[in-house]
Amino acid sequence: MAHNEVSISHPDGIRRVLMCAFPKGDWYRIVSFPDYTFKAPFSMVDPKEAKEARKYLLTGYLHHNVLQGEPALDENITKLLGWMDKYSEDKKPMDLACAVRPYYSMADLEVHIDKFFSYTAFDITGEVLFSKPFGFLEKGEDVRNSIAVTMILETYVTFIGYFQWIHRLFANPFTTWLGILPMGHVFDTTMAALDKRQRNPDARFDLAAHWFRGLERAKREGSKVFDLRILQAFATGNVSAGADTVSAGLQSFVYHLLRHPNGWQRIRAEIDAARKQGRCEGAVVSYEDACALPYLQAALKEALRIFGPGSMGLPRVVPKGGVTVGDVTFPEGVTLTISPWVIHHSKELWGENAREFNPERWLQPDIAKKERYFIPWGAGYASCPGQTVAKIQLLKVAASIVRDYDIRQVQPGKEWRVIKIKLNFMLWDTAGTERFRSVSRSYYRGAAGAVLVYDITSHSSFRGLQPFLNDARALASPNLTTILVGNKLDLANDNNLIDLPPPTPSSTSSSLPPYGTSSGSAHATLGAQMRATVAPEGREVSATEASRWASGLGVPVTTEVSAFSGEGVDEVFGRLARMILTKIELGEIDPDDPMSGIQYGDGGGWNAGGSDGGSVKSGMTADSAGLAPGVRRRGRRGGKARSQNWGMGMREWEEVFTLSRGRRRGCC
Length: 668
What we know:
Elements: E1 5-7, H1 13-18, H2 47-55, H3 63-67, H4 70-89, H5 106-110, H6 116-130, H7 136-139, H8 146-160, H9 164-170, H10 173-178, H11 184-199, H12 207-221, H13 228-258, H14 261-276, H15 287-290, H16 294-306, E2 314-317, E3 323-325, E4 328-330, E5 335-338, H17 340-344, H18 347-350, H19 367-371, H20 387-404, E6 422-429, H21 437-440, E7 449-455, H22 459-463, H23 465-475, E8 481-487, H24 543-552, E9 557-560, H25 569-585, E10 616-623, E11 632-637, E12 640-645, E13 659-660, E14 663-664
Parallel strand pairs: 1-5, 7-8, 8-9
Antiparallel strand pairs: 2-5, 3-4, 6-10, 11-12, 13-14
Helix pairs in contact: 4-6, 6-13, 11-13, 13-16, 13-20, 14-16
């Protein structure tokens, strides 16, 4: 996945990596909320430090301690059932789930986030932790957009965990002091409840009572890794993580059983049989009675397996001495990640139907062997401490809903899907020659991305890149994304890098200054394309030289391609699309800004414009889940046109350049 990170799907990975006391990857440091001075066990990368801090907190999560607060859980679940009754009586559809889709403004979120499973999960979590629900169910709305902001925060954590210096700019003690915080309502309520419980720790036997007892114990023992700030960070992190886990589990449970109605009826039959014996009665099904429903438990486990709350890799750093997983040995310092999603969908571990919802798999005699590969809560010393609370909530809510309600989809048959964000690229080839430069500079304006192209067999073309980079950064959008591409990889001979001849003046190179310095901060669409040449001698520009030049000028990606064979061409545009999309998701690019180079709209396939004789404008559609799956390329070498077709029929995007007046325009 990176020069020092490997993703593992081998069956031994859980036992050999997650179950061992390996240090966590640096990504975990991001989970310090509200700023980096608030360290919780989850954000501690040292296993010894994390274990010591956890020991003062975990007694509250024991089953019998959590169940002492079951009546309070029932009160909050009853509020959910009350809302369901109201929607049923009014004969209106009720949005139980939490739709996840691209969003870039708070107004966009407000329409789509009012989801009752999320309200329930947050309120129950607040009740269990410190006897203070957040009021979402009481009002039937997302109070102060707290849940909406939580979803944005999850995206932030996912990306910025790999850029810790950015996190320190935004999440620092000064912003905390100013009160500039995400999840403001949730954070304020959590801190106020903890303060109140600290002043009266015996008011109720909730988790906060156990935590403050642990704090007193840590003081007596002189612990250096557990104090009030760690307790506060732990509580805040548990609110968002715990609520998200329960909400995702309930959504998956209801969705998949709606698509498998026989499973819903089988659970109801279990409950009906239990009611004949005097169990599963009351407004809310008790935890004890829910535990006696084997098919309900199987369906919940399968819902968490097929669509669990966490899909990111869980990074661990290989300690001194290395580690062997399967037949591969990894040296000290390598980061190994194990994704629950990958493990849970492995046909090797779960059979050929691994990607199908099938609760019956959990009732098979050999399921004990497979349980070791069920990791929705993580594994080892870094596993979710609140999984006991989550399991209790899931069982009680799921049993009560199936017992009392018939649920169907408003749009029967409509499936969940992996979101594919389509990007329609408008591409301009600036021709790369001086005679078109006065015209092509106008095409840079408002561009969001640029591909600078040089000929790896012509050092003069490489030396001529600088003016094009300068033009792009001076005229394009402020957040320009740039990729450096060396063409004619098919002619390269890496083992025979020739000495460079003296520069020969030409229309391309003599009037252009040598590469070196750069100014400005932005860039635009396609880039510098030089004359097609035949170079039997091999390459003149090494990959190392190109990378060094790009690094010195802030161009983040360099690669080499062959327009003749098509090798690597797809990847260039796919990489550019992902980079631009990531900037949008991180807020670095505002699509509403007319200078961003981004426009909203629908469309797919080709929207080809006309040729102006020196430039070519064309459209390209790519999607973020599988960018540019197929391509047809036309290349040009030594004056001989050559076409090559990958796949049959039209694909997502096919040709880089349009045809004008029946002739091929330009090269590659």
